[in-house]
Amino acid sequence: ALRMVDENVNGFDPNIKNVDENELKEPTDKRMFVLAAAIKNNYSVEKLYELTKIDRWFLEKFKNIIDYYKTLTTFDTGTITLEILKKAKKIGFSDKQIAAAIKSTETAVRKLREEFQITPFVKQIDTVAAEWPAYTNYLYLTYNASTHDLDFPGEITMVLGSGVYRIGSSVEFDWCAVGCLRELRKQGKKTIMVNYNPETVSTD
């Protein structure tokens, strides 16, 4: 979610902000990074709860991320194992985030991941909760799976969506992509759209 909101952010990054207890008390858009720094600096969940009033359950989840980040920093591209890299992807670390932790590059981490055959699986969302047959084909990618829900035989035209909805933009960008899909289908082509957090899915 943090990467979607700001493309300059690697994720729940403990190195963006310094620890400041006054900032931890105030709910701002930058507090998450102060929280990450505090966890890295061994603030306890109880202490963070007192300062932030964020539910302890969520604080434990945040701590899990930073604890694993610390684990990653003990490796480099020559020593990181398949199991360590796979777990990082399952937790939600991006290749860029892993690269920062192991002092490498995003390209090198991606290459290593492909050598280890760590790639995401395509899963299908049941948009009607099994109440009746679902005809909409909403898909998502995850590393927390072992099989694909469907096959891609090839000869499919990919349309790239406009990405995250931001203040100042609107659904017309999603509609352009939909128009492109419809035109390609009129030409008899099979299509798939790749997008993240599109406005038309998130609210409509």
Mean pLDDT: 88
Radius of gyration over all CA atoms, rounded = 20 Å
How much strand?
5-15%
With strands numbered from the N-terminus, the spatial order across the biggest sheet is 1-2
Q: Total number of β-strand segments?
A: 4
Cα distance spanning the termini = 19 Å
Count of domains:
2
The number of distinct helices, counting runs of at least 4 residues, comes to: 10
In this structure, how is the largest beta sheet organized? 2 strands, antiparallel
CATH H-level superfamily of the largest domain: Carbamoyl-phosphate synthetase, large subunit oligomerisation domain
Written as H for each helix and E for each strand, in order along the chain, the element string is: HHHHHHHHEEEHEH
The CATH class of the largest domain is identified as: Mainly Alpha
CATH topology of the largest domain: Carbamoyl Phosphate Synthetase, Chain A, domain 4
Indicate the percent of residues in helices.
Answer: 40-55%
Query: Regarding quaternary structure, how should these chains be classified?
Result: single chain
Low-confidence residue ranges: none
Assign the CATH architecture of the largest domain: Orthogonal Bundle
Query: What would you call the structural class?
Result: mainly alpha
What's the overall geometry? globular
GO biological process, one term: citrulline biosynthetic process
Domain Carbamoyl-phosphate synthetase large subunit oligomerisation: 19-143
Organism: Galleria similis
Protein name: Carbamoyl-phosphate synthetase 2/aspartate transcarbamylase/dihydroorotase
